[in-house]
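Lab manual, section 2.4: Encoding a predicted structure.

Procedure: take the sequence of the chain (237 residues), apply the prediction step described in section 2.3, and record the output as structure tokens. A sample record is shown.
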Amino acid sequence: MTSCEKYILEYSAERASFRNCDLLTAAEESGYPKTAVNWFLHKLTSERKLSRIGRGVYSGVLRQEFKNEPDEPLTKLARQIFDQYPGVRACFYQGTILSPLLHHLSYNALTYIEVQRELTEILFHRLQDAGEKVYLKPSREVMQNYIDISQSGIIIKPLISGSPVTIESGIPMPTLEKIIVDTLCDEDFSYLQGGEWEYIVDNSFSMFDINSSRLFRYAGRRGKMQEIKEAVNSYLL
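Recorded output:
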């Protein structure tokens, strides 16, 4: 290991996170050229000795990647929808995706389908006609009074433009950054808002890699930039 690599790792060990520009300034003062620092920073990140948690922001605290493979029923449902509506923009997941993030375990057996707005009602009626228990963008009141999240059912809601999704086994699913923002914003997640949501944020940053640039960008699209920044600021210092 070169002295420059050691310097970068020692620098990262003293901080919860750091910005590339601050590292470059400090390293240059210690005699390391910027080109070398940038190269070794890239190398250490590729070797997973450092993690990139935002645009130009790094951390020496290595966390696991948030992944949630779709099960067979969800995969089958998603593929049926793609067959019926080729080229549709959609996102699929099960309520159990939330389980690793929760403090008080609330088993959620629901399936979530987010689809481009013009298809929400069409898909709702198609699934309803097929005998599915399906709800169209349920309000806070409907969730509290009429939906038992421990029982199977399907929630359909519009897919927000610019939603960060990832492909798992060929199925578009939400990134962790999307989950953090959606559980703050969506009325169907009202049972998680408040103290439980704060725990979701804490658990997310403690256990998993978070791309802060992606998080803030999506929060801005949903009009929650300030709330998200205030909630996660301490994790990025």
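Check your result against the sample. Strands lie at 18-19, 51-54, 57-59, 90-94, 110-115, 134-136, 153-158, 165-168, 171-174.
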